[in-house]
Amino acid sequence: MSVRALRDRFRLLQRHRLFSLVPLAAIVLLLPLLFPSAYYYRIAALVFIFAIAALGLNLLMGFAGQVSLGHAGFMGVGAYAAAIGPTHLGLPPFFSFVLGAMLSALVAFVVGRPILRLKGHYLAVATLGLGVLLAIVFSNEANWTGGPDGMTVPRLTLLNWSLRGADTWYWILAVSFLVSAVLALNLIDSPTGRALRAIHDSEIAARVLGVDVAQKKLMIFVVSAVYASVAGSYLALLNGYITPEVSGFLRSIELVAMVVLGGMGSVVGSLVGSAVLVILPQALTLFRDYEHMVLGLIVMSVMIFLRGGIVPRLAAALGGRRK
Amino acid sequence: MAEFLQFVFSGLTVGAIYALVAIGFTLIYNASDVVNFAQGEFVMLGGMTTVFLGQAGVPLPLAALVAVLVTTAAGLALYRFAIVTARDANAVTLIIITIGASIFLRGVAEIVFDKRFHSLPSLFGSDPIRVGGAAILPQSLIVLAGALIIMVLLWAFIDRTLFGKAVIATSTNRIAARLVGIDTRIIVGACFALSAAIGAIAGILVTPITLTSYNAGTLLALKGFAAVMLGGIGSAIGAVVGGVLLGLFEAFAAGYVSASYKDAVAFLVILAVLFAMPQGLFGKAKVERV
User: Fold this and answer.
1) Would you call B1 helix, strand, or coil by DSSP?
2) Which of A94, A285, B119, B254 is the most core-located residue (most Cβ within 10 A)?
3) With 70 as the cut, is the pLDDT of residue A163 above it?
4) Rounded mean pLDDT, A41-45
5) Range(s) of the domain holding residue B30
6) What is the pLDDT of residues A239-259, one digit of tens each?
7) For the residues B150-170, what does the mean pLDDT come to?
8) CA A97 – CA A80 distance, rounded (Å)
9) Residue B269: inside a domain, yes or no?
């Protein structure tokens, strides 16, 4: 085969929708070679967890163009499902995990239709209100959730094999993230994905073209809630402990910052955004007292100076391979 | 009956503060279309700065004055460094910027001040006045009077001065205002300064009753915004009525339903208003342009 034919093949491959997974998978496989201790596995596991949540939010924000300032609320639903199911209801941990995702989907489905009718700052405030309401419920129902002090989460067991150890969690979460990415990329490339992008550009034009705008928006809202819920369940299981803070207002804002920082509409960007915002505070533990100040500064500067996002900018700088 | 009256008193007191926060929101929103979530932080800064200057031995009236000036400077800085720098951003991005500013100010407050709750002595002592079986704190009357005076002064300023007319012109149509020679950047900056000052005064007035701490601002901002939504975004009367109504709702919910879910009332109000009547009580319905 000539060099030219090879190059053409490679070009075709590059255009495949799952191509951006190749560098992701490579990173996941090679990264542990650089880890000197279990601590690094844990941080990487956290990055994947938030990347899953950010990816879900990115589907909503980057593709459908709808903002949610309350997405941590759904993380809370997932987290508390993983905690309450086995502790209070005697359900198997894995089943509680799935139940949490279903519950999040249900909540999103019920409130989604009226909320998604709103636009601009009305939508921002309504989602914010939803998230804070969920957080208030979690910290008030102390009999179930342990109140503001939180509760312990039983370990996840699969066929009598109890999951512990940061490296085990690293691989589970890496695979989960890759699976979420594949699902997201497939969704983006489906008729639904194209309809969502049309809605992003102009809702009225999309409607004129026969897109059921309300139904598509609701669908992507439910999907992104499930992503957040799964991330929340994982977070609870990894930490073995949760407090209502998981669903708090600050968390929701952090998720939005991850999406924008990494790049709206970029799957790789969700990973990059969450990596930056998870690792940075760890690197700054010396300045623990300055945590809020630093987070505030990051959120402001991302929104002012980095609205384009890291990954889309890099891609543009490297020759505009991606849109 | 005494119980009912008691809830009305406490509802009105808190409602007056919500109304002041809501007025601050409205002032900035009308002048610049920015929904400023750092509004609650102005209230916190006013209260906390007064407390700490007082502890350092500064006489309270002077401390209060300095606190208002410090907060006004913070408001101006927010406008100059965050809002002006991001001028072509859309509404949602601007909201997130102000949320970032609110987190930042809270972070600064927990370092400069501390993480404890603080109070201020009330002006006329803390012996409650008995009215129809219910008790009302003298400070509550000061809060109500203060809120009323601020609102009247603000109305006089906006309605009776040339500068106020420029504010109205700017909020009606920024480009047209610029065409007739109004420097809209100065006007919008002044609105940020003014609403920071109003927030600071609210914080100083209410601290003897509700206490204050570095993180008191976030919830206040959210509730002030609920008041704005209830009254209809952009309407000054709506902000006042919305604030007082929200205060009363909360007091009754805490008294008759559940004290621990008091804070949920504001968010239920936000959602209910958005679902049922997005234009609020006094707002105008918006027509979408294609």
Assistant:
1) coil
2) B254
3) no
4) 91
5) 2-276
6) 888 999 888 888 999 999 999
7) 92
8) 9
9) yes
- On whether any CB of chain B is under 8 Å from the CB of A306, the answer is no
Count of other CB atoms within 10 angstroms of residue B114:
13
Task: Fill in the amino acid letter for B8.
Answer: V
Please report which confidence band the pLDDT of residue A323 belongs to, taking 50, 70 and 90 as the band edges. very low
Q: Is B270 on the interface with A (CB under 8 A)?
A: yes
- Residue B251 falls inside a structural domain: yes
B16-26 exposure pattern, b = at least 16 Cβ within 10 A, e = fewer: bbbbbbbbbbb
Interface test with A, best of B263, B267, B290 (most A CBs within 10 A): B267
Residue of A115, A204, A304 lying closest to B82 (CB–CB):
A304
- Count of the separate structural domains present in chain B: 1
Task: Tell me what percent of the residues of chain A surpass a pLDDT of 90.
Answer: 35
Mean pLDDT of B62-89: 93
Give the best residue of A122, A200, A260, A307 to mutate against chain B (max B CB count within 10 A).
A122
In a domain, B285, yes or no: no
Chain A from 52 to 91: CB within 8 A of any B CB: 67, 69
Instruction: Check residue B90 and report its DSSP letter.
Output: -
The CA distance from A42 to the nearest CA of chain B, in Å, is: 27
Q: Closest partner residue to A133 among B107, B264, B290, by Cβ?
A: B264
**pLDDT interval class at B67 (50, 70, 90):** very high
| Pairing label, strands B129-131, A241-242 | unpaired
Interface residue A290 vs chain B (CB under 8 A): yes
DSSP A78-147: HHHHHHHHHHHS---HHHHHHHHHHHHHHHHHHHHHHHHT--HHHHHHHHHHHHHHHHHHHHH-HHHH-G
ipTM field: 0.86
Q: For B215-262, write each residue's pLDDT tens digit.
A: 888 889 989 988 998 888 888 899 999 999 999 999 999 988 888 888
Bridge partners, A162 (sequence order): A157
Residue B277 has pLDDT above 90, yes or no: no
Whether residue B286 lies inside any domain: the answer is no
